[in-house]
Amino acid sequence: AEAAAAPGGGGCSPAGGGSVPVLFCFSVFARPSTVPHGAGYELLIQKFLSLYGDHIDMHRKFVVQLFAEEWSQYIDLPKGFLVSERCKVRLVPLQIQMTTLGNLTPSSTVFFCCDMQERFRPAIKYFGDIISVGQRLLQGARLLGIPVIVTEQYPKGLGSTVQEIDLTGAKLVLPKTKFSMVLPEVEAALAEIPGVRSVVLFGVETHVCIQQTALELIGRGLEVHIVADATSSRSMMDRMFALERLARTGIIVTTSEAILLQLVADKEHPKFKEIQNLIKASAPESGLLSKV
């Protein structure tokens, strides 16, 4: 979903306390709820998804609108809008249907490496294999000039990214406590990269940080590719159901080889031989893909 910026304000009544009543409207539905005081676009989108997720077609783009008393109608959500008082918002699907084709080009792609940290090594199933595949993906990103964003979940307690993963040239390596990788610093880094359309996402855990990151990214209108042979969890059941859920929302579940060959696209690509050599050095069959 994406919000269009427009000047103007909303018709609202003051509300005190730490939360603010908001009426969320979508199609024929209207449901009162609350959001924290100071909530912005991101939290409004999350609330819409929690209330109407079963009815929202993620292959469409949306605009969020605010009811403005001064105009007696809805206006596009003002840029930088924060909820400070009671108000009414609605999610409006644009008329153009967006088909998820899954095309990848180096110039419009970013790689996200999520929490591949030392303390996860004994707990995550097939962790050695996803390290090997993650290495290959990051080597491919360097060869093709694709920006890489890396996060580490509470590194003070969980350690840094494993030594086998070479972070040379990464655009951003960021500690976090939030499960999703979509932090203000990450959003700022994405804004610095012109024409970003697709995110290739891998790491741990599939049902927690990977899932929450993917849902936030598609909520911002980005296309997400999750690399099935480079993501895992402590439980294969958690991993399997997370991938199934994400695939139903329009996220593309794929493999490292498919990603790398899609990015070069042609045997005549100047980096094809080097990418081919990366693929030939494949990790052994781990059983991960039989549990997608």
From TrEMBL:
Gene behind this protein: Isoc1
Source lineage: Eukaryota, Metazoa, Chordata, Craniata, Vertebrata
Protein name in UniProt: Isochorismatase domain-containing protein 1
Similarity comment: Belongs to the isochorismatase family.
Ranges of residues in domain Isochorismatase-like: 109-257
Gene3D superfamilies, alphabetized: Isochorismatase-like (3.40.50.850)
Secretion signal span: none
